[in-house]
Specification:
It is globular and about 55 Å long. Helix content is 31%, strand content 19%. The chain is built from nine helices and nine strands. The protein is of the alpha/beta class. It has a five-stranded parallel β-sheet with strand order 3-2-4-1-5, sandwiched between helices. A four-stranded antiparallel β-sheet has the order 6-9-7-8, with helices on one face. It folds into two domains: 112 residues, Tetrapyrrole methylase, N-terminal domain (Cobalt-precorrin-4 Transmethylase, domain 1, 3-Layer(aba) Sandwich); 77 residues, Methyltransferase, Cobalt-precorrin-4 Transmethylase, Domain 2 (2-Layer Sandwich). α2 links the parallel β2 and β3. The protein starts with a strand and ends in a 9-residue tail after the last helix. The mean pLDDT is 89.
Length: 231
């Protein structure tokens, strides 16, 4: 039994990953969101159990995934974009981990960069913009929550980056991580408090992403329960 949390991409069915499409084509149960292209749902085998997210709240989705996984089925949870970017994939991963159901996350092409790119808008451009902010439109209604800060190519200047964040008032104990050579066989991950991150990650090879924010601590509830992880 395995549950795969699969990103379906930003809308065009051709933008799902090859691995994601293979899993959809081989699944025994498919649970999909309304934003998923119908063409991808049609790729599921004829005998597969098909469930739509419509009229189910998040707790019910979590319970469904756990039940299907415990029924010894190969389950694909197909989510628009990427499961971990405004997709509540973390909540589903935690539910599966706490229930002892094996699962794997298959990243998807997120709308956050792909949709602007598709209409000719580069989110970063030399001499124009070197940083990007992403927010959910629900934040104003639900109340602001924490912020996650991600730095591309931040390894070489990490001490300066950390000093600037601390000078801006960020708590020195804020969880932070450096992900070196992400998704590759030689991927390495270092997690530490923000103030200790430069020393803890010293010697890691690039390329690397730096992630700062309370979401880094969520990894403790997921890491180790994932069926396959790159590190």
């Amino acid at each position: 039994m395995t549950v795969w949390l699969v990103g379906a991409g930003p809308g065009d069915p051709g933008l799902i990953t090859a691995r994601g499409l293979d899993l959809v084509r081989g699944c025994e149960a498919l649970v999909y969101d309304r934003l998923v292209a119908p063409e991808l749902v049609d790729e599921a085998p004829a005998g597969a159990l098909i469930y739509t997210r419509e009229e189910l709240d998040q707790d019910e989705i979590n319970e469904l995934l756990v039940r299907l996984g415990r029924d010894d089925l190969e389950v694909v949870r197909l989510k628009g974009g990427d499961p971990y970017v405004f997709g509540r994939g973390g909540e589903e991963a935690i539910a599966l981990a706490e229930a002892g159901v094996p699962f794997e996350v298959v990243p998807g092409v997120s709308a956050l960069a792909s949709v602007p790119a598709a209409v000719g808008i580069p989110l970063t451009h030399r001499g124009v913009a070197d940083r990007v902010r992403f927010h959910t439109g629900h934040a104003a209604a639900e109340g602001a929550e924490g912020e996650t800060i991600v730095f591309f190519m931040g390894l070489r200047n990490l001490p300066c980056v950390v000093d600037e964040l601390l000078a801006e008032g960020l708590d020195p104990s804020t969880p932070a991580a450096v992900i070196s050579r992400g998704t590759r066989p030689d991927q390495e991950v270092v997690v530490a408090e923000l103030a200790d991150l430069p020393e803890a990650s010293h010697g890691l090879p690039g390329p690397a992403l730096v992630v700062v924010g309370d979401v880094v601590a969520v990894r403790d509830r997921i890491h180790g329960a994932v069926l396959q992880e790159f590190a």
